[in-house]
Write a structure and sequence with these properties.
This protein is mainly alpha-helical. It has helices at 2-24, 29-54. Helix content is 72%, strand content 0%. Helix 1 runs antiparallel to helix 2 (29-54). The mean pLDDT is 80.
């Protein structure tokens, strides 16, 4: 659990740093938000497609439908 919290904290600090850097370049907060949301949405879509590809490939449970 601590590792997850560490990664979440690091992600938040990285997100804030990128927003600050974009602000120094004159990028509005709204545009920065759109820019930052795009890779996140792509990562989620990629993870979902991986799950869909694996759907049905899980082994059958040992108790269901097996004869001794």
């Amino acid at each position: 659990m601590r590792r997850v919290i560490r990664y979440q904290t690091a992600g938040i600090y990285a997100w804030l740093k990128v927003f600050a850097l974009l602000a120094t370049q004159g990028v509005s907060a709204s545009e920065a938000d759109d820019l930052m949301a795009a890779p996140e949405a792509g990562a989620v879509a990629g993870a979902q497609s991986d799950v869909v590809e694996l759907d049905g490939m899980t082994p059958a449970s040992r108790g269901a439908g097996m004869k001794a």
